Automatic annotation (TrEMBL):
It is a peripheral membrane protein. It comes from Gordonia hankookensis. It comes from the Bacteria. Belongs to the THEM4/THEM5 thioesterase family. Residues 130-200 form the Thioesterase domain. Residues 1-23 are annotated as: Disordered. This is Acyl-coenzyme A thioesterase THEM4. It catalyses: (9Z)-octadecenoyl-CoA + H2O = (9Z)-octadecenoate + CoA + H(+); dodecanoyl-CoA + H2O = dodecanoate + CoA + H(+); hexadecanoyl-CoA + H2O = hexadecanoate + CoA + H(+); octanoyl-CoA + H2O = octanoate + CoA + H(+). Pfam families: 4HBT. The keyword Cell inner membrane does not apply. Its EC number is 3.1.2.2. Keywords: Apoptosis, Cell membrane, Cell projection, Cytoplasm, Fatty acid metabolism, Hydrolase, Lipid metabolism, Membrane, Transit peptide.
């Protein structure tokens, strides 16, 4: 282990066993990675934002490679399984601390669905200042999965997900996302979703999530 590395927290392994493709119980935490883990995630996102728009000199590229390699070595030394990584389980942070997701904050969960504010960043650029369509689908998949989990109080997996791109989805703008279960039919959970920029509809989702059977991979 490199200097400063801490032993991974695996203390929830026994009381929260892996039960199939996703966990039956979300391995939530507000402590893994320490009190400044959110700042770390934000620095990673900012790195990707800056890299997306940077045109470094060859000399700066050389320097950055060395610095990033040193950082990557430190992170490799504290690699852990997905169930115990702070990324994805830190419910106190945007997008549960998962730096691969467009950062969102869930503002309400009620009978009308899951309400979140999602902000696509510079590194989510598709072109011409608009969010990449695939990134819009990523936001819908995760927040649609959330609405499905709430509707069935269990774990589900995306069977299909269709997005209608109605107007440009802007970057660096807090957008309003709503996902909700329209119908539950046995294991099938039909999910709808919208992303708005104020009054303007940016995109709509129509998806099917399937409730996993016990132990299903
Ligand atoms: C506990 C409460 C907590 C509340 C708080 C929550 C906090 C939030 C926490 C965490 C949120 C996290 C959110 C993450 C979300 C991310 C989700 C993903 O990205 S998932 C990865 C991408 N998806 C895959 O990789 C799937 C790959 N495909 C499969 O694994 C299978 O095909 C699967 C499971 C989808 C279905 O397979 P089968 O064998 O289990 O089931 P079969 O029998 O094939 O289908 C069941 C029924 O569904 C229909 N069906 C299946 N696929 C369909 C399709 N594509 N189109 C139409 N119908 C389909 C079938 O016709 C069948 O219908 P009939 O029962 O006969 O009426």
């Amino acid at each position: 282990m490199s200097d400063g590395a801490v032993s991974p927290d695996t203390s929830t392994e026994i009381e929260d066993p892996h039960e199939g493709g996703f966990r039956a119980h979300t391995a939530i935490t507000t402590e893994r990675g320490g009190p400044r883990y959110g700042e770390f995630s934000e620095q990673v996102r900012t790195l990707m934002d800056r890299a997306r728009y940077a045109c470094p000199t060859p000399e700066l590229t050389d320097e950055l490679i060395d610095q990033l390699a040193a950082i990557n070595d430190k992170l490799a030394a504290v690699r852990i399984d997905e169930w115990h990584s702070p990324a994805g389980t830190r419910i106190d942070l945007p997008a549960r601390g998962n730096i691969t997701l467009p950062p969102f904050e869930v503002t309400d969960v009620n009978d009308d669905g899951v309400f979140a504010t999602v902000t696509f960043r510079d590194f989510h650029l598709g072109g011409n200042k608009a969010a990449h369509g695939g990134q819009v689908a990523v936001a819908f998949d995760d927040l649609g999965g959330y609405a499905s989990a709430v509707a069935i109080q269990g774990v589900s997996r995306t069977a299909y997900l269709t997005v209608q791109y109605r107007s440009i989805t802007p970057l660096n703008t807090p957008l309003q996302c709503r996902t909700w279960a329209e119908k539950v039919d046995g294991r099938k959970v039909f999910i709808k979703g919208t992303i708005h920029d104020g009054d303007r509809l940016c995109a709509e989702m129509d998806a099917l999530f399937i409730k996993l059977n016990p132990g299903q991979q």
